[in-house]
Amino acid sequence: MSRPTGKPSLPSDSVSVPGARRPSRFGRRTLRGPQPVAFLYLLPAFAFFTAFALVPLVQTFILSLHEWNGITDRTFIGLDNYASVFTDAKIREALQHSLVLIFFYAVLPISLALLIVGLMVRVRVRGQAWFRAVLFVPTILPLTVVAVAWRWIYAPDGPLNRGLDLIGLDAVSRAWLGDFTFALPSLGLVGTWVTFGLVFVLFVAGVQKIPNDLYEAAKIDGANPFREFLAVTLPALRGEITVALVVTITAALRNFDVVFVTTRGGPGTSTEVPSVFIYRSVFQTREVGLGAAIGVVLMIELLLVNVAVLWYRRRGEDVS
Distance between the two ends of the chain, CA-based, in angstroms? Predict the structure, then answer.
């Protein structure tokens, strides 16, 4: 009897080995990265961004290097407009006012929202959905409507002064938007009223995703409410705090509607912010190049602040 020679042939429907890669019916192309045709889907968004963001930005920077009144020919003056931005006392004052508004638009509402959210973790509040909806209403209102309403509230014979008179604080009542000392803080409180609802809703949504096991573990370890807030609630809200800072700081630095409708930068220049100064430079004094330079500096300031916030969050994540 002859012995079989050679290797035995495998049947065509052999059993596949577990873990082995099966060939795709689409061939080797599925193993590669994204195909060039996929970038065609990005072209509409990129074209829109180029036409309405990059091109105006480049044109603004070019205008900032010229002296131009918007009618006659432009004159190239280099960086003189930027020198004026950093040496002109009025422009520096407007930039300082925008930094003051950051406290009212960002720091104050975020601090209040964290305080309330920290209390809500410990105490159950009924009607939270209705409460969130009411607080969120100022965020969705047009800022022009908000400015008109608060101009009426702050009027000398408005509801605020009448309320102060009724409770015997008539010595405190004043023309809030016409006072050199209180005009800017009064506008800042309007910003607090507008941004608080958005910040509060963000934090409430962030707290709801925190597992209860973390709070129970903190209680077992003997943590008091303040320590529990620092160890559990605050670290879990790092992402929401970053979003809130970026949104509110941006709103503070580019603020125009509320200031222009209520005070137009007055009394004097006590509430003038960079956006109002840009409006005056371009449309009133016809210094288009100077207004463009202020706009570029304001954009860089916004970019640096937001990059610093994102860097701080990334650094906190790396440390933790």
Answer: 75
Can you spell out the DSSP letters for 288-305?
HHHHHHHHHHHHHHHHHH
pLDDT band at residue 142 under the 50/70/90 scheme: very high
Count of C-beta atoms within a 10 Å radius of residue 103: 15
Please report the pLDDT score of residue 186 as a whole number. 96
Query: Residues near 228 by Cβ (< 8 Å), separated by ≥ 6?
Result: 121, 215, 218, 219
Quick one: 277 exposed, middle or buried, by C-beta within 10 A (0-12, 13-18, 19+)? buried
Contact 109, 249 (CB under 8 A): no
Q: How confident is the model at residue 5 (pLDDT cuts 50, 70, 90)?
A: low
For residue 195, give its domain range.
Answer: 80-319
- Within the chain, residue ranges assigned H as helices are 43-49, 55-64, 80-87, 89-102, 108-122, 128-140, 143-153, 159-166, 183-208, 212-220, 225-228, 234-236, 238-253, 257-262, 274-283, 288-319
CATH number at 199 reads 1.10.3720.10
Apex 41 CA angle, 36 and 42, nearest 5: 95
The dihedral through the CA atoms of 27, 28, 32, 34 has a sign that is negative
Alpha carbons 249 and 293: distance in angstroms, whole number: 21
Q: What angle do CA 77, 83, 89 make, to 5 degrees?
A: 135
**How many of the other CB atoms lie within 10 Å of CB of 250?**
15
How many distinct structural domains can be found in the chain?
Answer: 1
Please state the pTM of the whole predicted model.
0.82
SS3 67: strand
CA–CA separation, 252 vs 103, rounded Å?
9
Hey, what's the torsion of the CAs at 29, 30, 31, 35, to 10 degrees?
70
CB burial of 161-190 (b: ≥16 within 10 Å; e: otherwise) equals beeeeeeeeeeebbebbbeeebbbebbbeb
Evaluate whether residue 66 is within a structural domain: no
Place of tokens 């405190």: 172
- Is the pLDDT confidence value at 12 over 80? no
